[in-house]
Structure formats: C-alpha cells, structure tokens
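Structure (tokenized):
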C-alpha cells in the first residue's frame, strides 16, 4: 500500500488539538532578580539593573579592546583587523538585541499589554548580561 506525504500531513493536521490551530501567542520574558516586584517598581528595578549591566558590558568591551592591543603575537595590521571585526560583531549584536527585545517583536508577543515594557527590559537585560559574560570569557587580561 502506498502512502503519500500529503495524506500523512492531512491525517496529522486533522488530529491536532484546536489549540494549535488558533492565533499564535507568547508572553516571553526572561527571569530577573526584579521579578519580586510589579508595575512601576518592576520597571524601576529593571532600569537600575540595566544601567549596571550596561556599565559592566562597556567595561568588558574595553577590556576586550585592551586584550587585543596587548596581544604580543599579533602584528599591528592583524590587531587592526581583529579590532575591526570586534567592532562589527558588537554592532551586529546590538542590532540583533534590539530587533529581538526592544521593538515590535515583544510588543506583538504581549499584544501591547501592560507587561510589554517590563518584558522588553528583561529581554535587553538578559542579552546584555549574556554578552558581557561572553566578552569576559573570550578576552581576559591579568590585572
């Protein structure tokens, strides 16, 4: 007996619960230390956490630049290219973070509801913390 892929797909689709056939929705936001708060307190806590995380990211980036400059095995031209690649990677990371967290994606996921701003802040915070850790692990200097 021959079975077509179309027939199998139709059988699977017919067997799906109706919950899978409705509107797609998500209300994603990573967990943070600010989750104990709600409303404006949550947003204020996330703003403070973001400021701290931003400072740490900038410090890690400066250390990455210093690590490149201090590399005794790389020529001046190699260091220049390496630094250019780091700058390009950081710009691409910022563009990704913003597309993933700050703009229309999370607003759509939250249906522009009351948790949208906090979800955006939590997403930016999680991404910033992860990028800081990545830079710290990739570029270490002994001080």
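Design, position by position:
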């Amino acid at each position: 007996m021959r079975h077509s892929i179309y027939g199998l797909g139709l059988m699977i689709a017919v067997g799906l619960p109706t919950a899978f056939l409705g509107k797609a929705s998500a209300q994603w936001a990573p967990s943070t230390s600010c989750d104990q708060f709600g409303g404006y307190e949550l947003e204020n806590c996330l703003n403070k956490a973001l400021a701290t995380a931003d400072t740490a990211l900038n410090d890690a980036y400066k250390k990455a630049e210093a690590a490149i400059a201090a590399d005794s095995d790389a020529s001046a031209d190699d260091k220049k290219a390496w630094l250019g690649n780091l700058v390009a990677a950081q710009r691409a990371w910022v563009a990704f973070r913003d597309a993933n967290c700050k703009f229309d994606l999370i607003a759509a996921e939250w249906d522009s509801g009351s948790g949208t701003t906090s979800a955006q802040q939590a997403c930016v915070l999680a991404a910033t913390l992860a990028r800081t850790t990545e830079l710290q692990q990739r570029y270490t200097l002994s001080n």
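Reviewer-requested clarification: The chain has a mean pLDDT of 80. The first helix runs from residue 5 to 15.
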